[in-house]
Amino acid sequence: MNTTILGYPRIGARRELKFATEDYWAGRIDAAQLETTAAHLRRSVWTELRDAGLGAIPSNTFSLYDQVLDTTVMIDAVPARYRALTGLDRYFALARGTAELPPLEMTKWFDTNYHYIVPELTAGTRFRLADGSAAKPVAEYLEARRLGIETRPVLVGPLTYLLLAKPAPGSPDGFDPLDLLDPLVEVYAELLERLAGAGASWVQLDEPVLARDLRSRDVEALGRAYRRLGGLASRPKILLATYFGAVAPEALREIAATDVEGVALDLVAGPGNLEALASVGGLPRKKVVAGVVDGRNVWRADPARVRSAYAVVLGLADTVELSTSCSLLHVPVDLGTETALDPAVRARLAFARQKVAELVALAAGLDDAEWPDAPKAGHREPVRFDARRSDREARLAAQRERLGLPPLTTTTIGSFPQTAEIRAARADLRAGRIGEPAYVAAMRAEIARVIRLQEDLGLDVLVHGEPERNDMVQYFAEQLDGYAATEAGWVQSYGTRCVRPPILYGDITRPRPMTVTWAAYAQSLTPKPVKGMLTGPVTMLAWSFVRDDQPLAETARQVALALRDEIADLEAAGIAIIQVDEPALRELLPLRAADHDDYLAWAVGAFRLATSGAADATQIHTHMCYSEFGEILSPIADLDADVTSIEAARSHMELLPYLQAAGYANGIGPGVYDIHSPRVPTSEEMAANLRTALQAVPADRLWVNPDCGLKTRAYPETLAALANMVAAAAAERA
Fold first, then answer.
1. Distance between CA 558 and CA 569 in Å, rounded?
2. Rounded Cα distance, 114 and 700, in Å
3. Which residues of 35-44 are buried (b: 16+ CB within 10 A; e: fewer)?
4. Which of 131, 289, 358, 564 is most open to solvent, judged by the fewest CB atoms within 10 Å of its CB?
5. pLDDT of residue 34
6. pTM score, two decimals?
C-alpha cells in the first residue's frame, strides 16, 4: 500500500525560516543568505520524508511567506501599484507593505488559524507564467531531483485561487474573479507542460474550496477547468486534492467525468466523503488518496478507524493510497523535542514527523498497538446560568455614568510590543536564572512604563500591555487544569508569525485567578479606565489542539465557566471594562451553511455564558480580526458585547454598512490602521478611515483603535502610529 502526505511544515524544527526572514527584513543578511536557509530547509524535508519510507513526496510546499501569495507572483497577478518593485522587495511588499504602500488583504485559510494573502484581481488582469521555465514549482522539482528524490509538485488549484480572490477596489459591479477562469487555466496548462518537460510524473492541484458550498457556476467551472487540463497532450498525471470537509456529490461527479488520474479526499474532517464517493458509483480508473491521518490535530490515528475507512474506499476505487487528511502545515514538526509533557498525554500525540511514521506503519499493517484512553482532568458538572444581561439602554446609561468617555473614544486592542528585555525575563524565569519576585518586578516596571506612554499619547481607555503573556491562548491554557503546553510545538500562523497551540486534553477548571493581579496593579497607576483582557471560549478552542472525545460545545462551556469566574474577580478588583477576545469566531464557522446554526448557537452561547454575569456598569468588549465576517453579522450582534472592535483597515471598512444593516446597535471599533505591516499610516489616512466609518456609525458609538494587538511591532513605529491615531480622532471629534 503506497503512502503520501499533502504537505509539510516549512518553518523548520527550530523556526529557522522565521529567524532568517526577519534577519533579511532587518538587513542583517542578504537575499542569497536567505535562500541558503530556504534551500537547506527544503532539502532537509525531502530527505527526511524519503528516509522515513514515505511513498510519494510532495514539493513546492515551501514558501517564504504564503502559498497563495506565491501563486499570485507566479502567474503575475500583481496589482499595478507594486510593479515598480522587483524580486523579494515586491514579494514582501505584497505581504507586509512598505512605507508608501499598504499590503494586500490577509485573511484566514478556510477554518484554520493559517492566514493567506488575498489575491486582488480586476477585469483587466492578464495572467502569464512570470518566470517561464524557471517557475518556482519547476525549479523546486528539479532541485529535489538533483538530490535523487522524485517529488510531486503541489499547486494551489485554479478554482480555489479565483474563488478566494477579491475584486480590486473600484471594480465594476458584477465583476467576479471566476470570470478569469479560462485565461488562468491556460497558464496552468503551460505550467503543467513545463513540469512534464522537466520530468515530473505527478502534480497535485489543491482545491480545498470544494469543501465549501458551491454555486452551480462553480461546479461547471470545476468541470471545465479539469477537462481542459486533463486533456493536455503533455502533462504529468493530476492528483486533484480536496480537504477540510466533504466534497458535494455534484462536484465529485464533475471530477469523475474528467481525465484526472487521482483524487485526494479528507476522511477525517469529511467522513461524508465516503458516502459521496458511493453516491457517484466510486471512481473507477482513478487513484483515491485516502486522508486517514489527521493533518490538523495532534492525536494519534486510531488504527481500527483507518482500516475501516480503507476497506470502504478499496471497494470504490481501483487504487487506494494512504495519506494525511490535509497538509501537515497545521501541526508542530516533532514530538521528540517535548520532554516535559505528561507521559499519559504524550502517549496519545503525533506531530508532523510522527504522523509520517504512522502512515508508513499503518500501510505496512504494523500499528496494532492498543489505543490509549484520553487522560481526564477531573470532571466539572455542567452549571446552568441565565446567559442574559440587562437591555442595552440600561447598560449604556450605567456605563456612561461610571466611565464618562468622549465620542470617538481611543484605545488599543490589548498587547504592546514584546521587547527583547521582556522575552529575556520570561526565559530567565523558565531557566531558573531569576526568581519569581525579580520577574514580577520586571513585569510591573514594564506595565508602569506602558501606562505612562498611553497617558502621554492621550489615549482614553488604557491597557496594561500584556508583558507577562507569551500568547493570548497559551497564557490562559497554562493556568487552567485540563490543558498541556509544549516547549517547541510551533505552528505557522502567517509569514514569520508562529504560535504554540496548547493541547486541551481533559475537563477544564480554573484553580485560581489568572489576570487579576496584573490588571489591578495597572489600574492603580492611572485614573483612566484600564481594560481587563481575556481570551474567549471559542478562540481558546480554535487556537488549541482540542480533545476529540466529546462535542466542542461541551468543551466550550467548560472554558466559558472558567472565564465567568475570572470576570467576577476582575469586577471585584475594580476593573470597569473587560475585553473578551473572540478573533476566531468566524474561523471555526463550518464550511457548509447547513452546519452554521448549530455551531453559532453554542459559540454565541459560550460567549454569553462567560460574560452575562457582569454588572450593567461593567463594559464588556470583544475583538475579532482577519476573517470574512459577512456570514456571521447577526451572530456578532447576538454576542451582545457593549463594544466590538474588528479588523477593517486592510479591508477598507467594507464590513460596517453590512453590520449596521444586520441590526448591530452597540459600540464598534473598526481598526483604523493595519498592525501587521511595519508601515506607519499618516494621521490623515486614519482620519479618512474614520470619516468612512462615520457614514455608517454615529460618533457616540464609534471607537478608534488599531486593527489588532501590537505585540509583534517595534516601539518606534507603534508610538508613531498611535500618535497619528490619537491626532486623527481629535481632528474628527472636533
1. 17
2. 35
3. eebbeebbee
4. 131
5. 98
6. 0.91
DSSP code at position 713: S
User: Residue 494 belongs to what H/E stretch?
Assistant: strand 491-494
Tell me the CB-side half-sphere exposure of residue 733, using CA atoms within 13 A. 18
Give the strand pairing for 283-293 and 115-117. Answer: unpaired
Side-chain half-sphere of 677: how many Cα atoms within 13 Å?
A: 25
Do 298 and 415 fall within a single domain?
Answer: no
Does 358 share its domain with 460? no
> How far apart are alpha carbons 357 and 300 in whole angstroms?
11
Using alpha carbons only, give the angle 198, 200, 201 rounded to the nearest 5 degrees: 145
- Kind and range of the H or E run holding 319: strand 317-324
Q: Which residues, in sequence order, are CB contacts of 11 under 8 Å at separation 6+?
A: 17, 18, 333, 490, 492, 498
Residue 49 lies in domain: 16-363
CATH number at residue 480: 3.20.20.210
Rounded-to-integer distance, Cα 191 and Cα 120, Å: 22
> To 5 degrees, how large is the angle CA 412–CA 414–CA 415?
110
Q: Is residue 428 part of a domain?
A: no
The reply to whether 353 and 404 lie within a common domain is no
What is the spatial distance between Cα 56 and Cα 501, in angstroms, rounded to a whole number?
29
Alpha-carbon span 538 to 414, nearest angstrom: 18
Residue 676 annotated as catalytic:
yes
Listed residue (115, 162, 177, 209) closest to 627, CA to CA: 115
Q: Among the options 330, 464, 621, 676, which is catalytic?
A: 676
pLDDT at 651: 67
Q: What is the pLDDT of residue 6?
A: 98
E-strand spans in 125-270? 151-156, 166-167, 202-206, 237-241, 262-266
Q: Decide: 547 and 501 in contact? Cβ < 8 Å.
A: no
Name the grid cell of 731: 481632528
Residues of the chain with pLDDT under 50: 374, 378
Considering its fold, how many domains does the chain have in total?
Answer: 2
Give the whole-angstrom CA distance, residue 8 versus residue 17: 14
Query: What would you report as the CA-atom Rg of the chain, rounded to the nearest whole angstrom?
Result: 26
For 460-509, the pLDDT digits (tens) are 999 999 999 988 999 999 999 999 999 999 999 999 999 999 999 999 99
Q: How far apart are CA 214 and CA 192, in angstroms?
A: 26
- Nearest alpha-carbon partner for 332 in 147, 471, 225, 485: 485
Q: Give the pLDDT confidence score for residue 366 in this predicted structure.
A: 57
Closest among 191, 221, 187 to 204, alpha carbons compared: 191
User: H helices of 383-435, where?
Assistant: 392-403, 420-431
| Cβ atoms of residues 653 and 689 within 8 Å | yes
**In contact, 244 and 111? CB cutoff 8 Å:** yes
